[in-house]
Amino acid sequence: MFNNLANILERPKMVRFKQLFKSYIDSDFYIITVMAAAVLNWKLQTMAVILTVGLIHFLLILLFDINRIRFIPLVAAAIISLRLENIPDYLWPAVGASIIVFPLLVYDLYRKKVNYNNKIFVGMVFLLIAMGFSFVNAPDFITPLMGFAMMFFYTFLFLYFFNKVTEKETLEENRQYLARSLNYMVLAIFVEVLLFMIETKAFADLADFVSNKNIKLGWAITNFIAMILLMIIPLSVYYYIKNQKKHYLLLFVLIELALLFLMMSRGAYLAILITAIPFVVKFTSDIKDKVLFTKIFLISFAVVLLITLTILIPKEIVKNYFAALDKRGISLTGRQILYKIGIIVFKQYPLFGGGVYTSQFYISRVSESVYYHNYLIQTLATIGIIGLAAFLYYLYQILRGVTRRHDYNIYVFFIVLNMMVHGLFDTTFYNPLVMVMFSCILPLLSMENNNHAPLPLAQKEKNNVCS
User: Fold this and answer.
1) Using one digit for the tens of pLDDT, what is the confidence trace for 38-65?
2) Tens-place pLDDT, residues 130-179
3) Which residue in 363, 434, 442 sits closest to 150, CA to CA?
């Protein structure tokens, strides 16, 4: 069967189609296409659009053996495409797609020798084991099984990208492609927010809309969107640093900051406040033409100031925004009860926790929250002391990786720091959005135990000729 398929792919028409498809898939138009499909899927509140577009691209990338980093736009599009209210409405179509996608990914991963030599991966396996132990205390079997399955998916996704996109010859190119894809993801989120504002007639009273955190996109609420933005902003800056002649890339950063402004997330603001000075120092030290950048910055600042003076202040958006922040203050009211419940569950099941993914079960009597809004309490309450040890090992290995002296690693360090700070008030680690993003971002770190994937055949031949 595989010989017949190979013969078909070698036919002149298929070769020409492959060349055309590869040109398309290497272009920004591909990323724009899948992001547009995600927004359309979100707008229509369906699964048909993203599943059709996603599966076609996925199968063709595998069939023509194209660089697997091209899967990143598909992952990003899948994240922002959901807007269905009932879980079964998207769960079963997703399960159906998984039945097609997962076996192919497993085959694609294991058709060559797999490199397991990554300590972040080991930390994820330890977390999986701890989650397995937590089943003994869970109130039911299905709930922790879902949590375990999700962690298994994050772990597999990390291992897949670690093996498929970390060859030294393409590593830097893949990092920049990741950042570029996430920039377009932000544009798609921005479009969704605008469409949502039109639907809810938010422009009639922008001040009320901004101050009351009314943005609910289905796949995420304001705090979750803020987490995504805190992960993307450092990579957008990294991408600009690597392409400083493309000054339009700074527009992506401005859009991301504007969206973050709309989210009214105190945890996100605290993370920005803590990381701002070292981040700006790193960013400005990487600027080559500081005079030109200063001019661009001043022009951007003047535009923002003009918008503030002519729109935001007259419409009392700024006034209401700060009034809303002042009203919320730094009080943890609402979260305190979640923390108390988490600690009570931990005291009852200190060793293995009350069961992975069971936080909603224990919280449901007092709140609609899904998490304990603190990743440390989330760890202790759901997977106990054993889980905390596994999580700390996982986090230590991430920090060990991101503190190595490489631009990509350093900018990812700010992502991790943002999640650690924000996660003290909203559960970042264990959140599916954050964990999927980490499984795409962390494999590309420069570490002593990656980049050992076999060289492509063409590169091997080139090395043989040189020797």
Assistant:
1) 999 999 998 999 999 999 999 999 999 9
2) 999 999 999 999 989 999 999 999 999 999 999 999 888 899 999 999 99
3) 434
Tell whether 464 is covered by a domain.
Answer: no
Residues 33 and 136 in one domain: no
Residues 6+ apart with CB under 8 A from 390: 123, 126, 127, 129, 130, 383
- Least Cα distance to 161 among 89, 74, 223, 262 occurs for 74
Do 229 and 89 share a structural domain?
A: no
Structure tokens at 296: 């661009």
Question: Which residues form the domain of 290?
Answer: 112-456
Domain end position, chosen among 111, 129, 155: 111
Burial code (b: 16+ CB inside 10 Å, e: under 16) for 170-205 equals ebeebbbbbbbbbbbbbbbbbbbbeebbeeeebeee
Domain end, chosen from 64, 92, 111, is at 111
Kindly state whether residues 91 and 121 are assigned to the same domain.
no
Q: Does residue 462 lie in a domain region?
A: no
Does one domain contain both 85 and 130? no
- Pair (140, 79) in one structural domain: no
Could you report the per-residue pLDDT of 334-355, keeping only the tens digit for each? 688 899 999 999 999 999 999 9
For the chain (467 residues), the mean pLDDT of every run of 10, in chain order, is 62 84 95 97 93 95 94 96 77 85 95 94 97 94 92 96 92 96 96 91 71 78 92 96 92 91 86 94 92 88 87 76 66 77 94 92 82 92 96 96 90 96 91 95 79 42 40
Task: Assess contact for 28 and 179: CB atoms under 8 A.
Answer: no
Closest to 77 measured CA to CA, from 59, 57, 92: 57
Closest CA to 113 of 461, 454, 455: 454
Residues 93 and 159 in one domain: no
The residue among 202, 136, 201, 159 whose CA lies nearest residue 387 is 136
> How many structural domains does the chain have?
2
Query: pTM for this one?
Result: 0.89
Cα-based angle 100, 33, 228 (whole degrees, multiple of 5): 80
224 and 99, same structural domain?
no
Say whether both 92 and 146 belong to one domain: no
Q: Quick check: is 463 in a domain?
A: no
Within 8 A by CB and 6+ apart from 173, the residues are: none
Cβ neighbours of residue 261 closer than 8 Å, sequence gap 6 or more: none
* Rounded distance between C-alpha atoms, residue 300 and residue 288, angstroms: 19
Nearest of 381, 377, 422, 414 to residue 398 by alpha carbon = 414
